[in-house]
Amino acid sequence: MNIFFVSLGCDKNLVDSEVMLGLLDAKGYQIVDDETQADVIVINTCCFIHDAKEESINTILEMAQYKEQNLKALVVAGCLAERYKDEILKEIPEIDAVLGTTAIDAIADALDEVLKGQQHNYIEDINKAPQGGRHRVVTTGGYYAYLKIAEGCDKHCTYCIIPKVRGDYRSVPMEQLLKEAKELAEGGVKELILVAQETTLYGKDLYGEKSLPRLLRELCKIEGIHWIRLLYCYPEEITDELIRVIKEE
Description:
Elements: E1 2-7, H1 11-26, E2 30-31, E3 40-45, H2 50-64, E4 73-78, H3 79-83, H4 88-91, E5 97-99, H5 107-114, E6 120-122, E7 144-148, E8 150-151, H6 162-166, E9 170-171, H7 174-186, E10 191-195, H8 204-207, H9 212-220, E11 227-230, H10 240-248
Parallel strand pairs: 1-2, 1-3, 3-4, 4-5, 5-6, 7-10, 10-11
Antiparallel strand pairs: 8-9
């Protein structure tokens, strides 16, 4: 079975796409870069702002046209799917399965059901504990990769939809992140880019204190990693300890 993947939105969403690709790769699906050759199309969507929502819907409608040709299954995952889980199958009947933001591990099971002719809506607890350390198909060229260290956000800013589609702030356990980073390094990755909705709060929920400095020191020990970047640091959460680690490492 040939599978074509479209990943929209942020780099955090891209990590989810790479995890889903890894799961499907392990199941024997062939990844193709031409939608006209695909038996299955998966769209990992975004809905952060109006333009992102519009892009997601337009992409779904564009890919839905291939149902008239040889496309056997159209799956919609990610933030738009989570936000409009009740409407999406009804409004766009060409969609065969919807996966919420915490249901990406169900991608292979979803396709098994869909290919039997059953329409499905896979939505799990929005505050389900995030996992790291899983096999990914890296799509960034091989020399750099994103490492998602946490999921969700606790700030609940009035203008932002993230907590409603991604849940509360949940850190990925450090041992899982180190396992994932080692696998990426063994695959040729030289540069890690740490991402989360807010990287500076990493570990506070799991370890009772902000643990990004400790995570960074452990990542710096991994052979093959030469460069680490930090994205999405909130200035008010930056500590002297974090600055010290950046200086010393």
